[in-house]
Amino acid sequence: MCGIVGYIGSHQAAPVILEGLSKLEYRGYDSAGMAVFDGKKIGICKSVGRLKVLEELTHGGATMPGTVGIGHTRWATHGAPSNQNAHPHYNQEETIAVVHNGIIENYLPLREKLVSKGYQFVSDTDTEVVAHLIDYYYKGNPLEAITKVMNRVQGSYALGILFAEHPDQIFAVRKDSPLIVGQNEDGCFIASDVPAILKYTRKVYFIENQEVVRLRADHMHFYTVDEEEITKEPVTIDWDANAAEKGGYEHFMLKEMYEQPKTVTDTLMPRIKGNDIVIEELGMGDEEIKAIRKIFIVACGSAYHAGMTAKYVIEGIARIPVEVDVASEFRYRNPILEEGTMVVVISQSGETADSLAALRESQKLGHKVLGIVNVVGSSIAREADNVMYTWAGPEIAVATTKAYSAQLIALYLLAMKFAKVRGMLKEGEFRSMLGDLKRLPGQIERLLANKQRIQRFANRYIGAKDVFFIGRGIDFAISMEGSLKLKEISYIHSEAYAAGELKHGTISLIEEGTLVAAVATQDALFQKTLSNMVEVKARGAFVLAVTNEGNTDIEKAADYCIYIPRTNPYFTNSLAIIPLQLFGYYVAVGKGCDVDKPRNLAKSVTVE
Ligand code: G6P
Fold this sequence. Notes:
By secondary structure, this protein is an alpha/beta fold. Helix content is 35%, strand content 23%. The protein folds into three domains: 3-238, Glutamine Phosphoribosylpyrophosphate, subunit 1, domain 1 (4-Layer Sandwich), CATH 3.60.20; 242-449, Glucose-6-phosphate isomerase like protein, domain 1 (Rossmann fold), CATH 3.40.50; 450-595, 3-Layer(aba) Sandwich (Rossmann fold), CATH 3.40.50. The strands form five sheets. The chain has an eight-stranded antiparallel beta sheet, with helices on one face. A seven-stranded antiparallel beta sheet has the order 5-6-7-8-12-13-14, covered by helices on one side. The protein has a five-stranded parallel beta sheet with strand order 19-18-20-21-22, with helices on both faces. A hairpin with a 2-residue loop joins strand 9 (180-184) and strand 10 (187-191). The protein is globular. The two termini are 28 Å apart. The chain binds 6-O-phosphono-alpha-D-glucopyranose.
């Protein structure tokens, strides 16, 4: 996600900030900016593009003199990448400057309220709301204004704040977005991640949710949201700089798997309003939703697999026929798009050449396209008629994990919305599904905590030649993604099969000891999949089963079992995929593969 760096001390702030931001570049960003107090006022310089542009604009920081400042690299969420939307953001009088990571979920009503009070906005960001809201509450006491804002905003935030009236201080605050502060003999620092300040200090304080820090050149004070002062213990960081970029994780893929609870929350929560799902960006009224006759989902790779899951969910609960196509096929096969057909293109990068071509093809045939996209301002995001963003943040590992999980959530929301509007879900069912959705992040966390058991199992299979993944219905869609995760990073041949189809040829490949991963999370299909497991076991397969807690019957047919927490049957993919991702990851690590950059693969496939 975005990066934050701030400094107050005896040195010039701008060069320290630029240096710190450069250490956060790996996180991905589309624009950068700084605010420095020059002795009279807060100056801001910001620019779309690489950090180098900001460095050039400020001559390495020399044109922004001053010893207190905050800086930011932005990964666009609300509002396209542009100079105006880049951080920092001012209040109207330019006496307060704010940098922000995270998403302010209730920014729209807050913005309306502030506009009605005469505040003028110059950007499309949720962050600017924070700058004006601080101004609104500020009566001379920064801490009081900040804590009032914390009580008003919903969502996630790490904030760095400067007040022109208090130029000897920086304020830092967080909720659900990482933020650390550190100190050395020359000053104090804030940063969204350790690598940004590792060059200056290894003594850092991890800020907890709803805590505020007041930094001065020579000391820091910590407060609760009730303005009560608290004491905190520093932590000494002993990671090397390389490990620090990965937050201490061995690979970006592991880090991104661990970010999934947050990704799911960020994609889900802004769209749940009370007991309803509100997808403002859908651009469709109830009548249009009722008029949908068919949905075409078009995508590549894992996004295609997310689409396969969505087919079962949308058809199952909204009763709308869904066709899922790989984009490279769709674009050349002269698809039949009749009246009432909605086209959904799913893409993490928003730049995949085939998916973009499929989008254009659909528009040429006169159909509106909904993009489910992660990268704000990407080609698919710009060209789609409507965009529903997955708020996964930048994904660096080539093999997608968190963006895929976010796509699933966006698609569940779409399915439930359509089902509700079309009268296919009773209020009680809808509410219970909402409850299940909200429980997913915690359940994913539990599964991730079990990683050592999966690692031990994976170590037994680093020499495998072929692996088969089987499942029925949604479990088949999960198998497809589980199989792709394993093969793309470990280079072990694997295939996903609809469990009932295996005996029509592929079962002849099963030999003594062949690993078959059977996914059986759908109670209605459980006995059928169990029979398929028995079939392969009888031919010598070693069967790994992934099923719901309580389904201990499976132990009759499986050699090794992984249990996932109970959820609505339509959402099991979000849980079952976690052990499969971990399995693929640990097999690849065990084999010594380059996990984050597998051979022959690109993160964003912008050519045909
Ligand atoms: C590449 C990536 C996959 C991804 C696919 C589609 O092959 O390695 O992880 O699923 O492209 O990418 P998109 O950015 O359109 O989701």
